[in-house]
Design goal:
434 Repressor (Amino-terminal Domain); 6 helices; elongated
């Protein structure tokens, strides 16, 4: 496991959700400075905070730590038709990316 991946993964997730460091900090109860330290590898979250960050972004702690490269998607609130639509869209993206 490369814990150094945590900062890069956090930054990628934050940017993909169009959040500034300050906005992310406000949403999960951290200062902008702490988010910056995490992203730059100058600090690491507690286990509880790691879980909170994973929950916020809908990913596993393994994904945040660079152990698992696959993201998970929480579809528990979707109906069957919506789940099928999400699966089709993901399959189409995978086909496009493998061309």
């Amino acid at each position: 496991m490369n814990v150094c991946d945590f900062g890069a993964v956090l930054k990628q997730l934050r940017k993909s959700h169009n959040l500034t460091q300050e906005e992310l900090g406000l949403r999960i109860g951290l200062s902008k400075a702490v988010v910056s330290k995490y992203e730059n590898g100058m600090g690491y979250p507690t286990f509880d905070m790691l879980i909170q960050i994973a929950d916020y972004f809908g990913v596993t702690t393994d994904y945040l730590l660079g152990v698992a490269k696959n993201k998970t998607i929480d579809v528990s609130s979707l109906n069957e038709t919506q789940i099928e639509t999400v699966q089709r869209v993901i399959a189409e993206f995978n086909r496009d990316n493998n061309r």
